[in-house]
């Protein structure tokens, strides 16, 4: 199921109503995924220019405020006031910590344009997002853009984000997004009993110059995990502190038969100083050992231009102590 929203300047917020706007498409209960996850792709303009989030790890102090540079689904049903917009939308009975806390755009260009991309586990089903506000925040955390999510008939091919501003003869066309999909089913390593199913996708951007070309997103779930885990990395607990603890990662290898053929975490170390997979994984498990996961990761590889770079890689789920527990190969979805 897909929902979409045209986001506009929130009433009473200073700014240009014609230049401060955007579009987002939300994909929920993604086909073949077992997770209560939601992913979003979109675009915004009229933001503060030349923003660089601290999450990029470059030493910037921007976006550190609560909700700074945030992009979130909210619990309300109107964009008119902050009270009607509500807070971040998730089921607190199912999810131990706010999954939207670090969902944000990472940078803007010199004109204040940004690409929006991310995933979160909310504990809610697809129908629960309908008519909810999608809100984009300023670097200081205040709310800037808002639009209500509504049904879309094209869940994997979002419509154009913005109308053309120039003649088709002089413009490459309006910004738009799409995605290339993959799946991964993992089997237990060394009789661990842990299996998983995951949908992965590579965002495809058109006419959004600032859009990242190296992102891989995924939503999935695993069974047979240690029960009642609460990760220190977003789950509000103290578990998973060992290296790769509770990790869910794409690995560089193309064979699950041994740790050597599985390889290490898949990213371009020539382009990235820090391992982007280090803190990626499931954040909690149920009493039955079920865990869900959703994330978007910058890999340093131009997968948008060559999605085949992802095909055939090993997808691995780790135990809370960091050991490898389940492996499967990624394949392009039919």
Can you offer a commentary on this structure?
With 334 residues, this protein is mostly beta strands. It has two domains: 1-159, Superoxide dismutase, copper/zinc binding domain (Immunoglobulin-like), CATH 2.60.40; 176-334, Sandwich (Immunoglobulin-like), CATH 2.60.40. Helix content is 2%, strand content 33%. The chain has two helices and 16 strands. The chain has helices spanning 82-85, 259-262; strands spanning 2-9, 21-28, 37-45, 71-73, 114-121, 133-137, 143-148, 150-152, 176-188, 195-206, 215-223, 248-251, 291-298, 314-318, 324-329, 331-332. The strands form two sheets. Strands 1, 2, 3, 4, 5, 6, 7 and 8 form an eight-stranded antiparallel beta sheet that branches. A hairpin with an 8-residue loop joins strand 2 (21-28) and strand 3 (37-45). The chain is globular and about 60 Å long. Mean pLDDT is 87; it is low at 153-172. InterPro entries: SOD-like_Cu/Zn_dom_sf. Residues 156-175 have a biased composition (Pro residues). GO terms for molecular function: metal ion binding. It comes from Pseudo-nitzschia australis. One of its GO terms (biological process) is superoxide metabolic process.
């Amino acid at each position: 199921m897909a929902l979409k929203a045209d986001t506009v300047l929130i009433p009473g917020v200073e700014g240009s109503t014609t230049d401060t706007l955007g579009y987002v498409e939300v994909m929920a209960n993604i086909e073949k995924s077992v997770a209560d996850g939601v992913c979003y792709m979109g675009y915004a303009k009229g933001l503060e220019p030349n923003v660089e989030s601290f999450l990029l790890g470059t030493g910037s102090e921007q976006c550190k405020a609560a909700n700074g540079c945030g992009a979130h689904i909210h619990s309300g049903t109107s964009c008119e006031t902050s009270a009607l917009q509500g807070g971040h939308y998730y089921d607190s009975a199912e999810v131990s910590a706010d999954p939207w806390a670090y969902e944000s755009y990472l940078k803007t260009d010199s004109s204040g344009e940004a690409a929006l991309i991310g995933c979160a586990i909310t504990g809610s089903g697809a129908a629960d997002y309908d008519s909810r506000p999608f809100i984009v925040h300023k670097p200081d955390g205040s709310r800037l853009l808002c639009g209500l999510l509504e049904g879309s008939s094209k869940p994997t091919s979002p419509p154009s984000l913005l109308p053309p501003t120039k003649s088709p003869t002089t413009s490459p066309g309006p910004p738009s997004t799409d995605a290339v999909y993959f799946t991964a089913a993992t089997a237990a390593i060394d009789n661990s009993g842990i299996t998983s199913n995951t949908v992965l996708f590579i965002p495809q951007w058109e006419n959004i110059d600032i859009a990242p070309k190296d992102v891989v997103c995924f939503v999935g779930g695993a069974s047979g995990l240690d029960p009642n885990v609460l990760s220190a990395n977003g789950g509000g607990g103290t578990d998973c502190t060992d290296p790769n603890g509770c990790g869910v990662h794409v690995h560089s290898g193309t064979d699950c038969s041994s740790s050597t053929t599985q390889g290490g975490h898949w990213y371009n170390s020539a382009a990235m100083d820090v391992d982007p997979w280090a803190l990626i994984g499931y954040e909690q498990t149920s009493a039955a050992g079920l865990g869900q996961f959703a994330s978007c990761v910058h890999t340093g590889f131009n997968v948008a231009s060559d999605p085949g770079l992802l095909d055939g890689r090993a997808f691995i789920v780790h135990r809370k102590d960091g050991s490898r527990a389940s492996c499967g190969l990624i394949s392009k979805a039919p």
